[in-house]
């Protein structure tokens, strides 16, 4: 080898001599939360111009510098403003009127997933109506238009039982466990107001689902991506752990029998094909003590459980989502390392994260992702991931770092809470 | 495990209920090129508010959404505008008057690295004056104030020889190999104009260095980070390959004898300690056919060779740079996988990257990073990295993807160019 002439190394980044490049593609995303924020980070790598629909500059994706259209996801004109100049429109959340999306598609805009697919993730009743007859297993369930429907279901399947709002996004209208008829009686008026608010949303389904209460052995999520042309890439199933109703921890590989994991993967791929998914899809599954693998939830966008792919897989779910909605070849979903992710749920309203952050980084293997959200008790302000030779070690380290960052008790399944 | 109440999963990113969080820290970066762009991506993960000094909105970091101060790195008032509101000021390039930096520091702003450290990377003559007496090995060299200095050096050390501009950033004023006195004669008037432009820059050193011409066995770069408090984290040395004077390919682990790699790491750490580095530092080394390990170049910022750490190491150099300049605990520099990186040097001026991009992504293990720069022949518009079980396989795949993306000949050391 001969020493060659070379430019002076001491210039760092080269100056740009005028003119921005043509973007690789233009993608619009409805919503500007943390999923849009991390999608923006990924879009930069591909030269994709991502614009988001946001209510204001404090939203996480806007604060991260994503170009944005000011507007409300409930306003059709705002959706049109986003769709104009976007080759593809995709989603950061589900709280968008399905009728608006159908109208957008009818007007010629490309939505990925398509409205008739996306609604499966927007409405739990539709999900069961579509996927149930196709043979996908759900917990025993029925529609709940009124308190009597719940009582009848309880008489048949026993108590406790679970009520799930069919359409999400109202504060406090999520999932409730009812221990018995007395609990139902106390809440009936609030659950089933005389005025039928559901009508206003243009849905023909019931406001609530009632489901059997399950004794769970474990939960897992299968995250995959599907292109419109049909190619799929499925990540290894991710173990999930809920605490007080919020997904708190992820682990991969998931600690479930291999046969169950294979079954979950197969089920997720079949669901994606059945509904014509486009983009990232997450299928949350229950594995019950009596050995049933059941569908819990479905999301058709990047998903909290997929955050672990950012470091643990070859391709992050955010890069993958862009590739999938643009119908580009998908990245490898292969696992690079066992890993654990802990969601950072703010323990208080004081903005002391900056002070604690360097302490949390004392573990040199912690990967931190903050979402640009002010801490408020119970709010998910970020997540952190640790890779390890085994999941247990990674989870221990991730829990410790999260506790330090939040100034909270270390989560310890054995119950021995310990101040970090 | 008991099935628990949980919020409706179908909401995606949560809405932000007003108010942005306090940033984890405020960092100012002089320059807004691709290094600043990728630092911005990393800063988002840590909730660090990074603002950059840029000439306009087309610069890569500004196009990526980094908050910015409009200005010139050569203007003291613009540097002050950046430094105000920044806890720490750091750098994307070296083309900043050292006197301005000294004045900024004197005015109480925190610069990392400090001006007296940074100048070692700004001026190759200063580097040799500082590091030579401390025992660090450079190629034989001397100052070149005029053509006679070069001739005398050639008489003593033989021809060809190498001329290096001591301070960078002028187009065409980089590194030149002079085959003999005739070549010098032809260029002397351009190299040494009567009017001494160097005086204007406030430097007391010579405009050029003259160095022995080396027969190289290999080149490598050692990238490390150092905190002001002294902690260091050193990545495994990275093999580099130059083509036509531009760093074209990186591989890790570097294909050099273990003893040489250990020596290079030790040298880099000693250099960092000697000059009091703060932030990322890259030491580019020559390994000669006659078995000498020599210092080539020094950078005190994230560096092109460090791009391979984004996927190949536990902690990317951009996260690491932020941690280091903020004096936070450093991340692990451990290697996660053998890897190869190919810089994307535009082959032409046509903006056809968007069309070729999906083709380049047909290899599911390609990690692409575009810099938001319009393609122009010879311009570095991005890089891509492939991880593999071994470096050779990763390099083959990376070369192929780069060639597809650029519509260029596949680079093949064996010389058998092949249209992708």
TrEMBL record, chains A, B:
Catalysed reactions, as listed in the record: 5-amino-1-(5-phospho-beta-D-ribosyl)imidazole + hydrogencarbonate + ATP = 5-carboxyamino-1-(5-phospho-D-ribosyl)imidazole + ADP + phosphate + 2 H(+)
Protein source organism: Aciditerrimonas ferrireducens
GO function terms (MF aspect): 5-(carboxyamino)imidazole ribonucleotide synthase activity
Ligand binding (ATP): 124, 164, 211-214, 219, 296-297
Function: Catalyzes the ATP-dependent conversion of 5-aminoimidazole ribonucleotide (AIR) and HCO(3)(-) to N5-carboxyaminoimidazole ribonucleotide (N5-CAIR).
Annotated stretches, region: Disordered: 1-20
Xref: Pfam families: ATP-grasp, PurK_C, RS_preATP-grasp-like
Subunit structure: Homodimer.
Protein name: N5-carboxyaminoimidazole ribonucleotide synthase
Pathway: Purine metabolism; IMP biosynthesis via de novo pathway; 5-amino-1-(5-phospho-D-ribosyl)imidazole-4-carboxylate from 5-amino-1-(5-phospho-D-ribosyl)imidazole (N5-CAIR route): step 1/2
The EC number(s) this enzyme carries: 6.3.4.18
